[in-house]
Design brief:
By secondary structure, the chain is of the alpha/beta class. Helix content is 36%, strand content 14%. The two termini are 23 Å apart.
């Protein structure tokens, strides 16, 4: 199992901070750490309902939160979605673990994108399964190719994971590709696990298409939550919505509910904000629109990579990350972990090595778009300085053979 987003480099960053250094943490998509606050209406919703939050809640979540999520799915064209198809969890992370534990027998396989958000690979492994990675290559704008999936599906494959908008690459999948993925899952009788936590974070012409309406004939489990779009990571509120072939999945859904009952209930106070969050004006729109903070920060990263002789970038079209690569012609033996360590030690910037996202390539790194544009411009100036130094001393970041 690997989760290097909070691994050895992050521990070293804390040590450097304890020595009095200022570290720019670009490793985690944590809006609150960069001054992006949860909407005031959501905070008021929690305060008003604290007196109803002191006991355990239902294991699958309080009714107003589940009903609000169901209504969101109704607005997306799934008009028969009911509250009892929704399970509320302590963030999407907990729900990913629960749905995989309910599903997998030892040795069964799950198709996971590469690069992926490493929780998916880790959760498959921890629950006795085998993660089979299908490549989403930079040369194809990190969009998956169904032909790659056909090469990897076996009689042990149980599920397909789709992350859209994508973490770490920022890719937003076209509807035609999502339909191909849905048809593939239906053809092979696979559960679709659709990680859509960044559903409202899309830039320029990119548009989010939910997977569930495209997959009526197989079981689809769609994940969302308050952490990213609503800037409430610490509240730990996520949801999973079961749609599609529900009549064949009753035993599985009961297993999920049983595991949810074993942890008693999800965080109750945070659930009172779900109805308020999903209704009314979506404040994230101001941040991702042209001239908005996230859009400006994204543009700063795009411009910095475009002006660099060392860096290439597939422009992120969604989510809150960029996934630059270092030119292999300049650094043929580049090692992303050694580079990230050098960047932290000498320039006090913390990024995540690209191979941490379960890809074989060693010339990528991930950073968040959450800081102000000016702060990211300064960060890329320091990155450029380091790469200039390393061009003269490439052995400092060469892969160990």
């Amino acid at each position: 199992m690997r989760y290097e987003i909070r691994g050895a480099l992050a521990r070293r960053a804390r040590e450097l901070e304890q020595q009095g250094n200022d570290i720019l943490h670009l490793n985690i998509g944590n809006p609150g750490a960069f001054g992006l606050r949860t909407p005031e209406t959501m905070r008021r919703a929690i305060v008003r309902n604290l007196k109803y939050s002191e006991g355990y809640g239902p294991q699958t979540g309080i009714f107003p939160a589940r009903e609000a999520v169901a209504m969101q799915f109704q607005s997306r064209g799934l008009t028969d979605t009911r509250y009892d198809q929704v399970v509320i969890g302590n963030g999407v992370s907990e729900l990913v673990d629960i749905v995989l534990r309910s599903l997998l027998d030892p040795g069964e396989e799950v198709l996971v994108p590469a690069p992926d958000y490493p929780l998916w690979t880790a959760a498959v492994t921890l629950n006795g399964g085998r993660a089979v990675h299908y490549p989403c290559r930079a040369g194809n704008d990190f969009i998956p190719d169904v032909a790659e999936l056909e090469k990897r599906v076996t009689n042990k494959t149980r599920a397909l994971v789709v992350i859209n908008p994508n973490n770490p690459t920022g890719a937003v999948y076209p509807e035609s590709v999502l339909q191909e993925l849905a048809d593939f899952a239906t053809r092979h009788d696979l559960i679709l696990f659709c990680d859509e936590i960044y559903d409202a974070i899309c830039y320029d012409e990119a548009r989010f298409q939910p997977m569930a309406p495209l997959a009526p004939d197989t079981l689809c489990v769609s994940f969302g939550g308050l952490s990213k779009v609503y800037r409430a990571c610490g509240w730990r509120v996520g949801w999973a919505v079961f749609t599609g072939a529900l009549e064949r999945a009753e035993e599985y859904r009961l297993a999920v509910e049983k595991l949810a009952a074993l942890r008693l209930s999800a965080n109750v106070p945070g659930q009172w904000a779900v109805q308020t969050a999903l209704g009314g004006y979506q404040s994230i729109a101001d941040l991702v629109a042209r001239g908005g903070r996230l859009h400006d920060s994204r543009q700063a990263v795009i411009d910095a990579c475009k002006n660099s002789r060392f860096l290439d970038l597939v422009a992120p079209m969604g989510a809150m990350y960029a996934f630059p690569s270092v030119n292999p012609d300049v650094f043929p033996d580049f090692d992303d972990h050694r580079f990230a360590a050098e960047l932290l030690e000498h320039k006090h910037i913390l990024v995540v090595p690209g191979s941490s996202f379960n890809i074989p390539e060693r010339n990528f790194f991930r950073l968040t778009l959450l800081p102000e544009a000016e702060e990211l411009e300064e960060a890329f100036d320091r990155i450029a300085d380091l790469l200039e130094e390393l061009a003269d001393e490439p052995q400092r970041i060469q892969a160990v053979k």
